[in-house]
Amino acid sequence: MGGSLLLGWLLHPWPDTPDGLFHLHRIRALSDALRWWVLYPRWFPDFAFGYGYPVLNFYAPASYYPPALLHLLGVPLIPAARVSLALMYGLSLGLVYSLLRRTVHQEAALLGTALFAFWPYRFYDLFVRGALPEFWAFLWLPLLLYLTHPKGAHGGKRASLLTALAWSALILTHNLTAFMMGLVTWLFVLDRVHRWKDVGVPLLLAGGLSAFYILPVWGELKFVGLGTSSPAGYSRHLIPWTHVFTWTVPFSYPQAASPTIPLPGYVSLLFLGTFLLFLRRRPVRHLLPFAGVTLLLLWLQTDLSAPVWEVGAPLLGLLQFPWRWQAPLGILVAWWGSELWEAWGKWPSSSRGGVLLLLVILGYFAVGRLHPPAAEYTSQDLTPEQMWAFDAQHGQVGASWTGEFLPRWVKEQRWAIGREPAEPNPIPPDPAPEVRPLRVGYTRLLLHTQGETRTRLTFHRFYYPAWDVQVDGRAMPTEPVTNLGLLSVSLPPGEHTLLLQWRGTRFQQVGGFLSAVSWLLLLGLLMRSTPSPRERRGLWGLTFLVLGILAWRLFLPHGRWIPVHPVEGRAPGVRLVGWARPPSAARVHVRLFWLGEQAPIPRLSAFLHLEDREGRLMAQKDGPVGTPYTPPARWFAGFWVPEDRTLPLPEGGRGPYRLWAGVYSPDDPAHPFFRVEVGRSDDE
What we know:
Layout: H1 2-10, H2 20-35, H3 55-58, H4 65-72, H5 77-100, H6 106-117, H7 120-129, H8 132-137, H9 141-148, H10 157-173, H11 175-188, H12 196-209, H13 211-220, E1 245-246, E2 263-264, H14 266-279, H15 288-299, H16 306-311, H17 313-316, H18 326-343, H19 351-367, H20 384-394, E3 434-440, E4 444-451, E5 455-462, E6 467-471, E7 474-476, E8 478-481, E9 486-491, E10 494-502, H21 506-529, H22 533-555, E11 562-563, E12 565-571, E13 574-580, E14 588-596, E15 605-611, E16 617-624, E17 639-647, E18 657-664, E19 674-681
Parallel strand pairs: 1-2, 5-17
Antiparallel strand pairs: 3-4, 3-11, 4-10, 5-9, 6-7, 6-10, 8-9, 12-13, 13-14, 14-17, 15-16, 15-18, 18-19
C-alpha cells in the first residue's frame, strides 16, 4: 500500500515524457474498442490520421487493459493510468517481499524490496521516458527469478505450469523484457543440466499461451517498418566502462535522448561485499550466479561488447538500447542484496533500524532529484484530433516516433501523410459506384453498391493482408493504391452487397488456435495438480473466464454492429451518404460517411450543428470535409472516408436536440450546398 501511495503521489501531476502521450492514446483507443465489444483490437482505426495502424498486432497489449477498463467505467484517462500504475507498483513490492521471505529473514527481505522499489531505472522508465509497458513488466520479474532460483521453487508439474503463466504474462506485457529475462534465467541454470527443463518447458508452454500475439509478430514483421529498420541503432548507446556507474547523490536522471543511463554506484558495493565474504571464508557459492550474471549485463552495456552485438544483431538489435538490460538487473540486484545481507550472519534485532535507514537512503537516492516537467495536456485533451495534430507537428505518424508499424505499402514519407502530396497522386481510373451504407462495426463495414460498369471503392485505411472484402459472399482480391497504400477493391457491374472486415492473416488465425489449445491444456493440468479445494475454486473461476473469452472470440469476433442511416447530401466532388452514432463516452458523437466523386475535390468545409427545440444553435463544429489531414488533393472518385465529430451538450439548452450536417465553400459560408438532419438527442 505504501508503494502505491508513493507512486500515486509522484505521478501527480502527470509527467511530460516522450512516450507517455503515445501510451495514453493507446489506452484510449483500447477503451474505444471495448465499447464496440472488441476484446483484442489488432488495428486501431483512428490512428495515423484515421488511416489506421496495427499497433497491438505488434506491441504487447497486456499493460493497457487495466487503465482501459477503468476508463471504460468512467475514470478519466490520466487518473486511470495513474491508479493502475500505482497499484501495480505496490503489488510488485508486495510480491518481491513475500518471495524473498521464502529464502531470507525479514530484514534481508526488506532490504531487497527497497532495492527493487527504488531501482533508478524503474523511475527513469516512467518519469523520463514514459515507457509505461516496460514499467509494468517489473511486476513479473520477481516471480520468474524465484521460480528459476534453486532456493525458490523446487520443480514439479505445478511449479512449471505457474512459471508458464508468469512467462506468458511477461511476454504479453513487454516482449523485449521477456527476451532479456529469458536469457538471464538460462544463465542461472547453465551449471545445472537437470534444471534446464524447469526453464525450457515453461517457456515452451508460455509460447503456446501467447501464440496469438507471438506468431503474428514473427510472421508479419516484414509487413511494417519494424521489419525494414536497421538493427544497428544500439551502437550509439554503447559506453566506456568509466561511464557505467554514478555516485551522484541523489541520482541524476539523464534526458531521454542521452546515450545511456548510468547504474547507481552502490551496485559495486555488492561485488565488494561478496569478495569480502569470500576472504572471510564464508559460503559465497550461492552468490556467484548473481555476481556473474550482473557482471555480464554490465558488460553488455559497454563498448567492449560491440563484437557480441554485431554478431547477435538480428536478435540483440531488436532491443535498440543496451541500457534496457537494467530491467532484469533490477531484480538481480534486489535478490543479490538480500542474499548478501543474509550471508553476513545472524543479525541482531537492532539491525532492523539499519535496514530502515538504508530504505530511507535508497528512497532519497532515487527520488530526491526526480522533478519531471508536468504535462500540459489533460484527460479531456486526449482525443484523436489531438493525436493527429501532435503527429503532424512532429512529422510522425500513428503516435510513434519512427513509424515502426507503418505498413510497407505506404510509399509516402511519414511526415507527409497528413499533408498535400508533393507530387501528383496516382489514382485508380475506375469510376465510383453508387453506395448505400447499411451497418458499421469497429473494423468492418456493410454496404450496398450499384454500378452499370466496373467501379472501384478505395477505403480511408491502409492496405494490410488481414483485410478481407467479400462481394455477395465471395472473397474479392484487394490491392494497395496511391502512394498512401490505401485498401482498394474493384467491383463488377450490377448491384452487390459488400462486406469489409478484419479477417486476420494465417499467422493470426493459427496463433489464436494454438493459444486456445494451450490455455485449455494448462487449465486441465493445473486442475489435476491442485489438491487444495480453495485453490481449485480459484482455478474454476479462471477456467470460466478463459472459456468466456474463447466463446466471445468465436461468436463475436468483430464486436457489435450499429446501423448506418443513409442520407443524400451532394457538394462539388463529394457526397454525404450516411451517418451513425458510434458507442462513445462523448454525449454527442456522430460518424459521417463521405464518398469522393472526383480528383481532386475543391476546398470545402463541413459543419455539424446542434440545435435545441426552438431551433437555436447550441454547439457546432466546422472543419474541412473528412479531416484536416485528408486534404483535397488526396481525394478521388470512389474514395470512402468516415469522419467522427463530437459535440458537448450545452448547459442551459432545452432538449430534445437536433443535429444537422452540411457542406459549404469557405468563401461563402452563408450558403451551404446542403443541410441534412443526422440525428437527435432526447436529453432534456
